[in-house]
Design goal:
With 664 residues, the protein is of the alpha/beta class. It has four domains: 104 residues, Methane Monooxygenase Hydroxylase, Chain G, domain 1 (Up-down Bundle); 205 residues, Lyase, Ornithine Decarboxylase, Chain A, domain 1 (Beta Barrel), CATH 2.40.37; 246 residues, Alanine racemase (TIM Barrel, Alpha-Beta Barrel), CATH 3.20.20.10; 47 residues. Helices cover 38% and strands 15% of the residues. The chain has 22 helices and 23 strands. Strands 4, 13, 14, 15, 16, 17, 20 and 21 form an eight-stranded mixed β-sheet that branches. The chain has an eight-stranded parallel β-sheet with strand order 5-6-7-8-9-10-11-12, with helices on one face. Strands 1-2-3 form a three-stranded antiparallel β-sheet. Helix 5 packs parallel to helix 12. It binds pyridoxal-5'-phosphate. The site of pyridoxal-5'-phosphate has 17 residues, from helix 13.
Length: 664
């Protein structure tokens, strides 16, 4: 778990909250105002493209955080925040969440749906839910619930621990809790019982097999379920999740399974419980047309199911609303060719057109947008520890006694010209390799090889200088020269803080927090402090596209150089071991016996739900108490009996001490 966290955020959306709380320790704002204006410097990192509403470059050359909820407020110097946190003993690496960034995304999403509904005359409501797995951190979910309450915004859960989180929150009475994923009896029981507290908890059937457990538990408790059905769309999408979309999607029912479920629900007189249809296309869908087509197909299913007699009231189109990480505004894997507002309008309009065609009543629209709600709200900030330079800045001049290969290396400068750049590179590499080969055969000494390496790096530097003046360069040569960049060793762990960068080549914009008015004279890749060779970032979002190296500044003596990785609020914080809050599994070590069978050598129990909840900053006792309060209040209002109170509390308690995985 990330141990460096910002202090608790203010509970409510105060427009100036951030600058107010930190103003005591921030450096004098005048000092930034009086220094040279860096905002006029070229925006090589593309901050104005990808960070537009949230970030700016201050005249001091530092990154400023804008308050998107109060755009006329003066931006706050990010480096001063970091320094001020350092003074409090909170040092980097540091995951910084900005309260208003989250509030702003929630506001934008909900307001955009409201506007689209008003503009099109749509008769249903928007009932968005936040998928808890995208960021389960207590502070984030608490804020989402708070910002979402005026909009009847709910939560999506995919496991029992996530359901426990949802039930400990006070959602608006019209908000829904969507239960996805494969559910065991305990999960189903708790979801059913929660209806007694006024939660609209919808059990989304993932497969026909789940029906038996649902029937059994509802009959035992005497509670009619609120049911959804997850369908598998036939359409596939592009982007990072292309292979798991359409028929290859591992979740959702095929058309024949859907019919099986409908028949079974009808036969058992449960068809009236089927109120929601769910489909999820994938995450970070780059193309708006694909979203439109998928929503249209979902409507076809929806109308067919209504025709079958299911009183469907909610159409849940899942996640997929993408984030423009690169600022390219195009249908590439790390960008999207649509805005959040366009997404909302397109969804509403597509559903309306499809339903109006056949004169059917408009359903409430549910989306499960996770990434789009939280990605922008956090940034990872770390300092550079040291640099391995890939060059030799001092000129190397031929001297008496230089080995022939060194003389050849230095002679390259005589024919170094743009037209012969590739040839120069080939020659340098050949002579350097020859020198190394001679060393391996003990034909040259260590000092000569070291001098040869310096001569080679010095010449590579000169080649890079020529390359910079050229507009076109063969891709291979560009890549080779880019590969010969510095390595900036940074104070963070890629696997802990940026797992998607490693796992799925996710791009996050990265920029220095300071010296943005000063042209960077180095270029490098970033290496983390783990000893793993994969622990590096070597693809970067820049103003002129995605590049293999990041322009960086020479480190200054006695001055920390900070980098920020932006838009890391979705998935990154909990993707490691705790995705969906499934904790460590039980671990058993066995030895096979020669005569057959095995010997149990070691057994280690997996995490309980209560343990994983405490990893993400929940206090299980406090959760239990707030749940108890809600239940007791219902007893006082006579909406449940004391016996039902006991049943609810037992179910909650049992889950808390139980295993996070499926239990039989
Ligand atoms: N809903 C379901 C069922 C998911 O599996 C996911 C994530 O893949 C989401 C919602 C969230 O998707 P996104 O973050 O793209 O909004």
């Amino acid at each position: 778990m990330n141990s460096s966290r910002p202090p608790s955020a203010a509970p409510a959306l105060a427009p100036n909250a951030l600058s107010d709380t930190l103003s005591d320790t921030l450096s004098n704002p005048l000092s930034t105002a009086l220094s040279a204006d860096a905002s006029a410097a070229p925006d090589i990192y593309g901050i104005s493209r990808w960070g537009a509403e949230l970030l700016t470059v201050l005249p001091s050359g530092r990154i400023g955080l804008r308050n998107p909820l109060a755009p006329t407020d003066a931006p706050t110097d990010l480096l001063s925040i970091v320094e001020s946190l350092n003074e409090r003993g909170i040092s980097s690496p540091l995951l910084l969440r900005v309260e208003q960034f989250l509030g702003h995304r929630m506001q934008r999403l909900n307001e955009a749906f409201l506007a689209a509904i008003r503009a099109t005359g749509y008769e249903g409501r928007y009932r968005g839910v936040f998928p808890v797995k995208v960021n389960q951190q207590a502070q984030v979910v608490d804020r989402i619930v708070e910002y979402g309450r005026p909009y009847d915004f709910g939560l999506e859960v995919g496991s029992k621990p996530e359901l426990l989180i949802a039930l400990a929150h006070s959602l608006s009475p019209d908000a829904v809790i969507i239960c996805n994923g494969i559910k065991d009896a305990e999960f189903i029981r708790l979801a059913l019982l929660s209806q007694r507290l006024g939660f609209k908890t919808i059990l989304v059937l993932e497969s026909p097999k789940e029906l038996a457990l649902v029937f059994e538990e509802s009959e035992r408790l005497g509670i009619r379920p609120l049911l959804g059905i997850r369908i598998k769309l036939t359409r596939r999408v592009s982007g990072k999740w292309a292979l798991s979309s359409g028929d290859r999607s591992s979740f959702g029912m095929t058309i024949s399974q859907v019919m099986e479920v409908v028949d079974e629900l009808r036969a058992r007189s449960y068809l009236d419980c089927l109120i929601l249809q769910h489909s999820h296309l994938g995450s970070q869908i780059p193309h708006i047309i694909e979203i439109r087509h998928a929503v249209r197909e979902a409507c076809t299913f929806f109308l067919e199911l209504r025709r079958e007699g299911a009183p469907l009231r909610y159409l849940d189109v899942g996640g997929g609303l993408g984030v423009d990480y690169t600022g390219e505004n195009s249908a590439t894997p790390n960008s999207v060719n649509y805005s959040l507002e366009e997404y909302c309008t397109n969804v509403v309009e597509t559903v309306k057109l499809a339903l109006d065609e056949v004169g059917e009543a408009h359903p409430h629209i549910v989306t499960e947008s996770g990434r789009a709600c939280v990605a922008h709200s956090s940034m990872l900030i770390f300092n550079v520890l040291e640099v391995t330079r890939y060059d030799s800045p001092e000129p190397v001049v031929e001297v008496e006694g230089d080995h022939e290969m060194i003389r050849h290396i230095l002679a390259v400068q005589r024919y170094l010209a743009p037209m012969r750049l590739q040839e120069c590179f080939n020659d340098l590499t050949y002579y350097r390799d020859e020198l190394r080969a001679l060393f391996r055969r003990s034909q040259v000494g260590l000092r000569q090889v070291a001098r040869g390496e310096r001569a080679y790096l010095y010449m590579i530097n000169r080649l890079k200088a020529v390359a910079q003046t050229m507009r076109a360069l063969p891709d291979e040569l560009r890549a080779s020269l880019d590969n010969m960049s510095d390595i900036y060793h940074c104070n963070f762990s890629l696997f802990q803080s940026l797992p998607d960068v490693w796992a799925i080549d996710q791009l996050h914009p990265i920029a220095p927090l300071q010296r943005l008015g000063e042209p960077p004279t180095r270029s490098g890749i970033l290496s983390d402090i783990t000893c793993d060779s994969d622990g590096k970032v070597d693809e970067f979002v820049l103003a002129d596209g995605v590049k293999q190296t990041l322009p960086l500044h020479e480190l200054a003596e006695g001055e920390d150089y900070y980098l920020g990785v932006f838009f890391v609020g979705a998935y990154q914080e909990t993707l490691g071991d705790l995705h969906n809050l499934f904790g460590d599994t039980n671990v058993v070590t066995i030895a096979l016996r020669p005569e057959g069978g095995f010997e149990l050598l070691h057994e280690q129990e997996g995490d309980t739900i209560s343990e994983v909840l405490s990893y993400v900053e929940y206090d299980p006792r406090a959760l239990m108490n707030s749940f108890k309060k809600v239940v007791e209040e219902r007893v006082n209002r006579c909406s449940i009996t004391v016996l039902e109170r006991k049943q609810l509390m037992d179910a909650y308690k049992d889950s808390m001490t139980g295993y996070t995985y499926y239990e039989r």
